[in-house]
Structures are given as structure tokens and as C-alpha cells.
Amino acid sequence: MAHINVPEGVPGIRSLVMFRPETGKPLYELAQVLLRGESTLSPAERELIAAYVSYRNNCTFCYSSHAAAARCLYEDDELIVDEVLKDMQQAPVSDKLKALLNIAGKVQVLGTEVKQADIDAAKNLGATDRELHDTVLIAASFSMFNRYVDGLASLTPTDPEAYAEMGVRMAKGYTLPQQPQQ
Amino acid sequence: MPYIPLESHLPGITGLLEYSKETAEPIRNLTQILLRGPSTLSEGDRELIATIVSHGNQCKFCTTAHTAAADLYLGENDTAQKIKENIETAPVTEKMKALLTIAKLTGQSGKNVTTAQVERAKAAGATDIEIHDTVLIAALFCLYNRYVDGMGTALPADAGYYNILADRLVNHGYTRLPQGYDHLKK
């Protein structure tokens, strides 16, 4: 049971933004621009960062749904997603992406955990200022989304199939869900 | 030194919001609705929620800025200081003690918010929207605090900067100034 009276049977953040669409609108706009807007990081890589941070925050709804979205976007390389969640350093992703995931993981703990050495390591592997910025902001944003979803105890489905369906929808982008028909 | 090139006359969050205006717009709009939009919580109460979370996340820039904004709304500088020291003995209502506790727990982890804390807030008269907004303000400041510190932004060279900022947050709000921020260049 959610802590507040959100629409019944609607999972996760969707139930919360239906409860309060005024704040839902900018939240979905932020997700869209961060994860689908123009960037030299692919939408798959950005979803992976979102899933990685959510996993570390132990937010089952967010990591399951963003991992599903990332699997869809990685297409034939979908196994990368679970390898990163299992052991990021050993996963078959580029060293640059590992350096960015390392920074995202530090942001998840606390902003002050990010040190100049972490930034230099990513820059030496070719990360641009914009990529560093976007990585930190995605990690910071999911530190928000995770707390919003779990802090209000929104419904978390346990069926993996429910997340697979969400992933397909999310891969197309983020639009504010409408109120269920009465 | 910030980790990416930001304008030196814009310490803390402002330089980041100017660096990336596309992402800044929804963040600014969300903050404006939550902290200044119609609400049964006063602007001062909502700034106290921002303050307690920023304090818990050890974000100096955000804590100082929102303490200054809360002080300006409340007309004194005692309450914001006291809630940072001890929520239970601070001079706020039972409802605000319950909401500030929920905010503080949200700052640690969403999972730390317990049914017992939510029931305490409801028993003290908190509505579902007030509880929703408290959790979302707390979550939003976890974004801000990590953004500001994770990018290594600078603190203002002069502490007077916070008074000017607090005045802007009270009299203008969180949306971008129509004329931008070039007038802040020395």
C-alpha cells in the first residue's frame, strides 16, 4: 500500500504523477530531455546509467524498468545490462563508460564523493565535459526519482513480464501518463 | 574549481543551470511549483524542508542558500538553525516536525520512510498532498545537492552572495531571470 491515496493498481512513478500531474509534467520532461535529448551518450548508455544508480539505491521499480528499457535499446547486446548490474568493472563495456559509471556510483552515494581523480580518469578516456555533466545529472536525477518512488511506497510489481512491457514503452520515450478512465 | 567550465560569477547551482538550459528548464519549473506554487504549506515551511535535506547531504552551498531563504520568509534566523540541530526540540508545529522527519528520512533513502512516520504526520493533520510534496521536495534536493557537489561547483567568494540569492528566491522565485545573469558580473 502506498503511503498516500494514489490510483490503485498503477505501478511506481506513474501512480504518483497521476496523483499530482502538476509536478509530474516537469518530472517527465526532465526524464525525456536527460535520457532521449541530444547527447553523444546513446539513449542505451543513459538508460544504463539510470538503471545502475537505481540498482545501487535498491529501488526495485526504477532499476527493473530502466534495465528493461536499456535492454530494448541495446538490442542484440542486451546482456550488457545485467553484466553491468552484476559487476560493472568486469562488464563488456568501454573503459570510458566504466569511468562514467564509476562517477555515477559516487554521485549515488553523495556529491562530495566525486573527486578530481575520477573526473580526470574519465577525461583521459575521452569523456567530454558535456558527457561528465550529463552523467552527474542523470545520477543525481535518479537519486531523486528513486526516493520519490520508494519514499511514498508506490506499487512495485514483482512479475518480470510487467517490466519487459514497460521497457518497450519507455524505449520510445517519456510522456506523462493520463488519468485512468473512470 | 568546478570539474567542467562554468561561468566564474555564478557559484553553486546557478552556473550549472546556465551551462545546461535544456535540463534546467524542467528542474526550475518543478522547483517553482513545489516551493512557490499553491500549497497549504507556507513558503517558509517548504524552504525548511529544502534546508534539512541539504544539511543531511552536507551540501554547503544549498544549505546556506535555503537557510537564508527560510530566514527571510520567517523573519528570524532561529528556526532554520534549530531544525538542523534537532527537529524534535525545534520551535515548529507537531505537523512540521513529522514532515521534516519524513524529509530527513527520504534524504537518507526512500525506503527509510516508515508507515509509522507517515501516520504521525497524518495524525498531526498533514494531508496526502502535503506528504507527497514533502517527499518530492526532499527527493528534489537530493538531486540538487548531488548536482552541485558532484560537479565540484564553487562556493561564493563573498558570503553576502547568499543574501542576494535569498532575496531573488523570495522575490522572484526559481524560474530563470528573463534578463539572464550577466548583471552579476563584477
Q: How would you describe this structure to a colleague?
A:
The complex is a heterodimer of chains A (182) and B (186). Chain A is mainly alpha-helical. In chain A, 66% of the residues lie in helices and 0% in strands. Chain A has helices at residues 12-19, 21-36, 43-56, 60-74, 79-86, 95-109, 116-124, 129-151, 160-171. In chain A, α3 runs parallel beside α6 (95-109), α3 packs across α8 and α4 packs across α9 (160-171). The longest helix of chain A has 23 residues, at 129-151. Chain A is globular, with a radius of gyration of 16 Å. In chain B, α3 packs parallel to α6 (94-108) and α6 packs across α8 (128-150). With 186 residues, chain B is mostly helical. Chain B has helices at 12-19, 21-36, 43-56, 60-74, 79-85, 94-108, 115-123, 128-150, 160-171. The longest helix of chain B is centred in the C-terminal third of the chain and has 23 residues, at 128-150. Classes of the chains: A mainly alpha (182), B mainly alpha (186).
- End-to-end gap of chain A: 21 Å
CATH architecture of chain A: Up-down Bundle
What is the H level of CATH, i.e. the homologous superfamily of chain B? Answer: AhpD-like
CATH superfamily membership of chain A, which one? AhpD-like
The radius of gyration of chain B is 16 Å
CATH class designation of chain A: Mainly Alpha
Sketch the topology of chain A as an H/E string, one letter per element: HHHHHHHHH
Number of domains of chain A: 1
Biggest sheet layout of chain A: none
In CATH, the topology of chain A is named AhpD-like
Strand content of chain A: under 5%
Number of strands of chain A: 0
Instruction: Assign a percent range to the helix content of chain B.
Output: 55-70%
As an assembly, this protein is heterodimer
Shape field of chain B = globular
Count of domain modules of chain B: 1
Task: From the 3D structure, determine the CATH topology of chain B.
Answer: AhpD-like
**Please, how many helices of chain B?**
9
CATH class of chain B: Mainly Alpha
Whole-angstrom Rg of chain A: 16 Å
Using the 3D structure, state the CATH architecture of chain B.
Up-down Bundle
